[in-house]
Each structure stands twice: as C-alpha cells, then as structure tokens.
Amino acid sequence: MKPQLKQADPAAIAHFKQQVRLQPNRGSDDCWVLVRTAFIFRGCRYGGHRAAWMLKYGRIPIGMYVSRRCCNRECVRPSHMFMATPKEAIGGDRHWMRLHPERVARGDRSFSRLHPERLARGDRNGSRLHPERVPRGEGQHKAKLTSGQVLYIRKAYAQGKSLKVLARQHGVTTWCVNYVVRKINWKHLP
After folding, report:
1. What is the dihedral of CA 18, 58, 92, 20, to 10 degrees?
2. How many whole angstroms separate alpha carbon 84 and alpha carbon 69?
3. Which residues face 81 on adjacent strands?
4. Per-residue pLDDT for 60 more than 70?
C-alpha cells in the first residue's frame, strides 16, 4: 500500500501547484484542473483528486472515496470535493441529475428528438451495413451449441424426437432446442 501524502506538506503542495491550472471563463469558484492525469510525488502515483484531498484535509480513511460536487472529472479543487462511502460515490451522477434536472436532456430536448437523422436506423444500422461483423453461431460468445449439433437437432426433431430428449442429450434447456427447431436462433443455418 502506497503512503498517503502528509497534510500541508510544503514540498508536495508546491509540486502540486505547478501541475494545476485554473479553468478559464468561470466564476470565483473555478475548477482546478491537473495538467497530467495523475499526481506523482516522491515516486508514488496518486489520483489528482485524492492527492488534493490529502494535502488539504489529511488522510483518507480506508473504504472511503473522494467524490466531486462539481461533476467535472478533471477537477482537483478540494472545496469541490467530499468524502463518500462506496454507495454514495456510485450514486453521485444520479444525485447530480436530481439537483440539476434542467441540465439533463429529456423529452423533446433529447439527442434522438433533436437529431433523428444522426441515429443509425433501418438500412443505416451497423448490422445491415456490415453483416459480416455480427457474430453468428459459434462466434457468438454465449453460444451453447455448435453448428453440427444444431443441424443434428433439426434433423432429429423432423424425424420425431421430442424437444425434451434432444435438450437432455445436448445439455441445454428445452427452450434452447425449441428456438433452434423454430429457427428463431441459428437462422443462418438451413
């Protein structure tokens, strides 16, 4: 476990201030943005927001997170942060949407209503433009059967074998065999 930064360490604070810039055109409560993605001090790498918290307020208790009130992922200003439990940290975006519903595009202001021409529908959909890219059969990551098994199941069902027997034989559910027989799944095979 890497050491935590010491509160009010002058060398660390000076190094931190060299890597921070203020966002332009904002009010007196500007966000501070770290020039790099992480803060590196004395050979240890810290997330910028965690480093800012430790330098201002001290240690971060085990199991706690540092979250931002401003919802700017790059912000490292300590006054924009608060300590949160894992549950609170995950729910941060939902909390922000409840506080600022006017900033969340809904209804007639949503992207799909404002720019329907940009949505890939019908013949512009990726599966229609490039059908070779869509994994089918065994190439699909959840496939439980092989092409040979599918052909055998269809042939055996046509000869009168029951779905239940075929399902037990291949170690799948009767619904799986039912979809294979009705060509809901594995449509690309005869």
Report:
1. 0
2. 11
3. 68
4. yes
Q: Is 67 helix (H, G, I), strand (E, B) or coil?
A: strand
CA distances from 141 to 132, 136, 173, 176 (A): 16, 9, 18, 15
| Comparison of pLDDT for 107 and 171, the residue scoring more | 171
For residue 82, what are the β-bridge partners? 67
173: left (phi over 0), alpha (psi -120 to 50) or beta: beta
Question: Which helix or strand (DSSP H or E) is residue 20 part of?
Answer: strand 20-22
Would you report the helix, strand and coil content of the chain in percent, each value rounded to 5? 45, 10, 40
* Mean predicted confidence (pLDDT) in 36-56: 82
Confidence of residue 34 (pLDDT cuts 50, 70, 90): confident
Backbone angles phi, psi at 117, to 5 degrees: -70, -20
Comparing CA positions, the residue from 68, 70, 78 lying closest to residue 16 is 78
The pTM of the full predicted model, rounded to 2 decimals, is 0.46
pLDDT surpassing 80 at residue 20? no
Dist CA 111 CA 135 (whole Å):
29
How many degrees, rounded to 5, is the angle at CA 142 between CA 160 and CA 152? Answer: 25
**Token code pair at residue 155:** 């042939």
Residue-wise pLDDT for 127-160, tens only, equals: 899 988 888 888 888 899 999 999 999 999 999 9
